[in-house]
Amino acid sequence: MNPFELKPKKLDSYVVPLNKLFLQPYNKHEVDAFTKVRLILAQGTEFEANANSHQMARHTYNNDIRRRIANIRRQEQLQHKMLSSLKPKDENMLETTLSYEQLAVELTAIMAQRAKNYVLKQQLDFALLEDFDHLYRFCDLLEMEEGKHFEKYIGNYTEVMPGRPTVAEFRHPNDDIRFAVSANKNELLTNIDIGIITAAEQQTMNFYMNLGAYHPNDLGRKLFSEIAMIEEQHVSGYESLKDPDMTWLECLVMHEYTECYLYYSLYQDEKNPSIRRLFEQIFEQEVAHLHEACDLLKTYEGKPFDEVIPYGNFPELIKFGENRHYIRKVLNDVNLTAVKEGYVKVSEMDKNSDFCTYQRKFVGSGSKNPSHMVIEKYISKNGEDLRYQTAPHPVKELQDRKSDNITVGRCECCLSGKC
Ligand SMILES: [Fe+2]
Ligand SMILES: [Fe+2]
Ligand SMILES: [Fe+2]
Ligand SMILES: [Fe+2]
Fold it and tell me: Separation of 286 CA from ligand 4 center, angstroms?
């Protein structure tokens, strides 16, 4: 599929009237977990489309450009409203959160396995273990507070057990920045994946930042706050990979192409007939956005689109499926942390490093971190934590279900209080 070869209708013809904006929500008792994951991924890309377009509008005096991107932006808004109307009223924030973290885990694993760029692959593997840990902590909270078992929400696609413990994920901001990946035009998939994962993490960060305080009790409110901090670290890491040399209009072309690619993937992967049709409908709109963006690039920068994307055929599509084996393999890296642009074993860290200093100052012992307290509380009520494992945890220190290990991934000197 090559969206540059398609002939979209005029942009205006895709405007959806208000009375067609609110769709029939899915049934939360019947919907497939991956359908929810795809819907959240689509909403994340619309958030990014809006954010990028608004930023672009603030960086030009040219009102013709500003008007034309406002027209595209309005459609991104309409797409977002249709997508978000599919969430049923009876699905609460914590239930939705499980799908957010499942998306983060599964999408990151898919991209890490196909990544050709080493800088991107390392960042994906690194962040994977953190979202994996978040999923486990939110699952335990949901069952403890509401008596709802996670399997109903995430199926048995994703294992639920500790990753890099959340307490160990707090790093100094100096250690979240990676080297930018120059947009090598032959590595289209690398550029697409950086765009998609940044949008997804950004949406998760915003979701927890905006709505975490609406959780009905303090432990949950604090857990959302704590994990929102880590999601911000993920956004900082992923966005730093983006190519800073692209102009705003080149960036717009790349964004619209990425949306085309994403909706075509979702359309091919989705089984629910009405949601599949919606993805197809939005894909057609995105093709019109892409052609409009290319025309803007040609008109105002005199560049043909193939200077940004030389070969328009979609690379390998995103398909949600089996990633448990891969995630188990990566779990052996729980003891890594980041130092500037690189990654090292925590045991090799200097006690005066930014990581150790920040851990001492911001986290302390970690025993009062909500992410730890949730699991300790679950264990004290039930005798052991709540997990879904297809085999013993691959990391020996994380096998004990009767106590939450908060020493893995942290520097020994801070834990012993000797430094
Ligand atoms: Fe869109
Ligand atoms: Fe997460
Ligand atoms: Fe994340
Ligand atoms: Fe778009």
Answer: 5
